[in-house]
User: What shape does this take?
Amino acid sequence: MKRNFTIILLLILSSRSFCQNETWTTYNTSNSGLINNNVDWIAIDHNGNKWIAATYAQGGVNVFDGTNWTSYDTSNSGLESNIVYTISIDSQNNKWFGTYHGVAKFDGTNWTSYDTSNSGLINNNVRSIALDKDGSIWFATLNGISKFDGTNWTNYTTSNSGLVNQYVYWMAIDAEGNKWFATDGGGVCKFDGTNWTSYTQRSTGASITYASSISIDKNDDKWVGTVLNNGVYEFDGTNWKNYNESNSGIAGNTEIYTFFDSTGNTWFTTNGGGVSKFNGNDWVTYDTANSGIASNHVSCMAVDTLGNKWFTCPGKGISVLSASNATVPVTLGTLAAQLKNGQILLSWTTYTELNNKGFDIERSSDGNIFTSIGFLSGNSTSTLQHTYFFTDNNPMYGKNFYRLKQIDFDNSYTYSNNIFIENISNTNTVLNVFPNPATGTINVNTKGYSGELLVTDISGHIIAVIATTGDSTAINVAGFSSGIYFLKAGNNSARFIKK
Assistant: This one.
């Protein structure tokens, strides 16, 4: 089935009206296999299974496949504790559990446990988990941050890094791979792999000293929830915009967590006000007075492949908002490009995926004729946010146009919008071209380069785009007019003369 990258728009009639085909279902201990109503967290894996954590009730983890319920706790699994704060699903569909006493990984068969006694984990109280582009797992704890690359552990604290506070409640990774941390008492930190940037109330004017959460939308804006009745802040990279009960339609000011659906809406769960939805212009609030939600205290949200919204309601179980005509395409964030050390780094984020086989990465010198330069596998069907990274090791000199070809498992496909970035690196070296001058055919040494050769005239107009053929590439220039021409291959360039 062909899937579009286009965001679907829903008609919002008013801030208190709802589509007639929306229905609510609540699961609790009286009508399901849920073992505890005091649930706080939910995540949905690649197979559509719902993983539900009962944090403060010490209820372990429940799994719901749509029909059957399964429970895991310390007595029948590798969970380090029955107090489970967070669940994260990686690209291999492994489940990672952050608990009160360490981390547990479940691959569907085997459990692996990590704590301070058997690993380099800096603290056992793990509140947030994120996966970076290199496959490393990051753990936000109440005593700093740990990074695990599968072999080695690296820890970051206030004493050895720019982390401003060691109580880290939440983390997220943006499209460029920057790590963002929400701390309890120090505001927000960003780590780009080398440098740390701190965002505090003093530096931003935003009341983010006690930050409870941080989420990143498709535009790469950061949404920071607060603890002390300060609402939520949207940071666009320059400005911090506050949303609270007095200046917006948000239903609460404290313990706000931000989530995103496939149609571009931003959702805010609150402690006491229900859940609010914002489409950029209008607000809708769902609470016990106007909807079927089980409680006004909502702690987490997840969206399944049909577009149904699942809300954890501590003390009341789980409420599901469904729409009979809900569909979820592959929803794509901004395709971004960055020139670094002669390479071009591409990144993009998906917010939902349905039957997504993967992405062909295509490049062009003129924005018209594109050639595939690589492929990244998708995450099949998923409602989790996934960030993809691809490096063009041999970009062309000058303009490089890129686009994504998203391919479904039935081989239908859709293209993203084109972007371009100019490679003006000064690291160019001279290609070996012979004979030079030439009358018929030139031979170009292309050993170690896989890509396209760009031929331009002295005015910079593109004359030909040639695919390389191993260590040496022959180009027939017999039809060229006499004059000076230039060859460009990634960061390499050469000049030759046609007699």
User: Anything to note?
Assistant: The chain has three domains: 22-323, 331-423, 429-498. The chain has a mean pLDDT of 87.
